[in-house]
Specification:
One of its GO terms (biological process) is telomere tethering at nuclear periphery. The chain is mainly beta and 133 residues long. Helices cover 11% and strands 47% of the residues. The chain has two helices and nine strands.
Length: 133
């Protein structure tokens, strides 16, 4: 069976200093979001990204990929609120994962795997979005 070594040096650096984070971090660390349904992106998001003003900041570039900021997550204890755009909000609950999950980066060019972070929590959004009035 094929195998590959896992480099945990990046994760060790992250646990020693929170200033060196390479992932989006919450007060509880990196988290998984579980939503019901799908997030629909605009079909012409590439042209929207070119027209995006720095003040809006909905689009950014990382490693040649266009990233879309679709919302704002607020966590208050065990409750979470996800604002999607300016029209909807989701109410959710923060839960601890039974088994922590490792976030890994696979580099197929040199056949290496890097442990980037470990998730211990997830936010579950069970209900339909609520309109923002």
């Amino acid at each position: 069976m094929p195998s590959v070594d896992i480099d945990a040096s990046q994760w060790q650096k992250l646990t020693q200093s929170r200033e060196k984070q390479t992932t989006v971090i919450t007060p509880l660390g990196m988290m998984m979001l579980e939503i019901q349904g799908e997030l629909e992106l605009p079909k012409d998001f590439a042209s929207l990204a070119r027209r995006d003003s720095p003040n809006e900041g909905r689009f950014s570039e990382q490693d040649g990929e266009t990233l879309i900021r679709f919302g704002s997550l607020q966590i208050d204890g065990e409750r979470a609120t996800l604002f999607v755009g300016k029209k909807q909000r989701l109410l959710g609950k923060v839960t601890k994962l039974d088994v922590p999950m490792g976030i890994m980066h696979f580099n197929s060019k040199d056949n290496k795997v890097e442990l980037v972070d470990v998730m211990k929590y997830k936010v579950i959004f069970k209900d339909r979005p609520l309109p923002i009035m």
